[in-house]
Amino acid sequence: MKSSRQCSRTSCDRPAAATLTYVYEDSTVVVGQMAATAEPHSYDLCAHHAERFTAPRGWDVVHIHQDLVDPGPSSDDLDALARAVREAGRPVPPVAPPAAPVASEPRRGHLRVVSSDL
Question: In Å, what is the CA distance from 27 to each residue of 34, 56, 65, 106?
Fold first, then answer.
């Protein structure tokens, strides 16, 4: 799964490849497939940190084996990018300038003359 989320580890800018979840009642940490959406009580990890994760003392770690390699953009991502580039490169039709006011119509502006005889 291609992810736009990044690793939760501080100062790591790699893309997330796995999700880490704590199961407190079993004192177990599960590191497995990337969750479809970001969850508030789980952590996204890059492949590097997911493979090297160690649990707190007394806790068990369950690694759900999978390939933690970022597969790169999917064909849908590439199609969307190609459409966006085509749309941005499409020529903009010329816009006709606004018509000039007809001389017979009085011009109504926002300014007016006020006499100083008040």
Answer: 21, 9, 20, 83
Is 17 within 8 Å of 46 (Cβ atoms)?
Answer: yes
Q: Which residue has the tokens 């759900």?
A: 64
Alpha-carbon gap, residue 60 to 53, rounded angstroms: 11
Q: For 50-80, how does the pLDDT look when each residue is reduced to its tens digit (9 = 90+)?
A: 888 888 899 988 888 666 555 556 666 667 7
Q: What is the pTM of this model?
A: 0.51
Per domain, the residue ranges of the chain are 1-67
SS3 at position 14: coil
* 35 residue type, one letter: A
Strands 42-45 and 60-63: unpaired
